[in-house]
Design goal:
This protein is α+β, with helices and mostly antiparallel strands. It has a single domain, classed as Beta Barrel (Catalase HpII,  Chain A, domain 1), CATH 2.40.180.10. Helices cover about 30% and strands about 20% of the residues. It has ten helices and eleven strands. The strands form two sheets. Strands 1, 2, 3, 4, 5, 6, 7, 8 and 11 form a nine-stranded antiparallel β-sheet that branches. It has a two-stranded antiparallel ribbon with strand order 9-10. The longest helix has 25 residues. It is globular, with a radius of gyration of 20 Å. The chain starts with a helix and ends in a 15-residue tail after the last helix.
Length: about 375
């Protein structure tokens, strides 16, 4: 499988990418994402819910932007002080921890875990009316990369997941798509089979790149504080991860926190199999790791959970994360996967809101910042 993980499915230059084909792929990805969402709900005899990361738990938090000039040289400090990170401040946030699978499984089934959160930039603690301002969303998983490399890989895998006969669907795929699916499945296995730990003790990364000011591109990380408290997980409880987080919020005197970091895209230092690549290579290939030894993360903020702030199911279900719609021109997501997943996520969100009888997606009700 080394051939698959090293070479196949990774686009080496812009000449390998076809914007016209990608646009058509995205249209089919939307349809297949809606089909998978409906199929997952029907199989489990439950209402239509999120298309992926369907099982989760939400709470309120504070997002503290740190003084990025402290202890850093002038050049790095200037590079870090962009957008919402330009000056210190404390903002209200809503967080959601979840499991990646589109089905509601036991928390102890092999899976990828996620941390998504929405930051209220108004600092007033209330939602704002403009869908594209006053709020910035982040989405991270406990993995370093996405196993799906781009829109082509996304569509190939979607065909398999939505098929009534997966083996037959795999056989009918074009040869290149077969290899894309095999590569994705090869990469996802070690990600899914990590040691199972409480949500509040996992490290999360964005996997995909975002703008950071007018010039730079970054990935995000959320690193747990070493002393984040947690009780031993109750493995006989299918909701063990959720229940442990709720217990933590309700009972512990110290709340968990995460250092939020950014990793700059630095083409002069970063290498793939010993070779330097242009910026678009790193942006367009979601399954290619940015080596921390070559491009370290820099802490710019801290996310801290608030005690007794667990959102009840109805309130949690009414919230959503949209890293494209809730971003600024200096913080937009980049790359093929981001271009593909946004319209699919919006269509999925509208479908579940219609099913729930909600005309427009609800906006979060934030806690007031301290």
């Amino acid at each position: 499988m080394l051939f698959l993980t090293r070479w196949f499915g990774v686009t080496g230059s812009d000449a390998d990418r076809d914007p016209v084909r990608e646009k058509a792929e995205i249209e089919e990805i939307i349809d297949r994402s809606l089909l998978l969402q409906a199929k997952s709900a029907a199989k489990q005899h439950r209402p239509l819910e999120r298309g992926t990361h369907v099982k989760g738990v939400s709470a309120r938090a504070l997002f503290e932007v740190l003084d990025v000039t402290v202890g850093r040289d002038e050049g790095l400090a200037a590079r870090l002080a962009k957008g919402m990170f330009a000056k210190p401040g404390v903002y209200a946030a809503i967080v959601r921890f979840g499991n990646a699978d589109p089905r509601k499984n036991s928390d102890f089934k092999a899976d990828v875990r996620s941390l998504s959160f929405s930051v209220d930039l108004t600092r007033a603690g209330t939602a704002v009316s403009d869908e594209h301002s006053g709020r910035q969303d982040f989405s991270l998983q406990n993995t370093k990369t996405l196993p799906i490399n781009d829109a082509s890989g996304f569509l190939a895998l979607s065909k398999l997941l939505t098929a009534s006969n997966p083996a037959g669907a795999m056989w009918s795929l074009p040869f290149k798509d077969k290899l894309r699916v095999l590569r994705t499945l090869t990469l996802v296995q070690p990600q899914m089979h990590q040691a199972i730990k409480p949500y509040q003790q996992l490290r999360y990364e964005s996997n995909v790149p975002f703008r950071y000011g007018p010039i730079d591109v970054v990935k995000h990380s959320a690193t747990p504080s070493p002393d984040n408290p947690a009780d031993p997980l109750q493995r006989r409880n299918p909701n063990g991860l959720q229940d442990e987080l709720i217990r933590h919020l309700n009972e512990d005197s110290k709340m968990s926190s995460f250092d939020f970091g950014v990793q700059f895209l630095d083409t002069d230092r970063m290498t793939y199999w010993g070779k330097r690549r242009d910026a678009n290579f790193w942006i367009e290939n979601a399954s290619v790791k940015w080596n921390e030894a070559e491009a370290p993360f820099h802490t710019v903020a801290r996310l801290t959970l608030l005690p007794k702030s667990h959102l009840q199911p109805d309130a949690a279900e009414a919230t959503y994360i949209d890293v494209t719609g809730n971003s600024t021109p200096d913080s937009t997501p980049l790359g093929s996967i981001n271009r593909a997943r946004w319209p699919a996520e919006v269509a999925s969100r509208k479908a579940r809101m219609r099913a729930a009888g909600t005309r427009e997606p609800a906006r979060p009700t934030y806690a007031r910042s301290a």
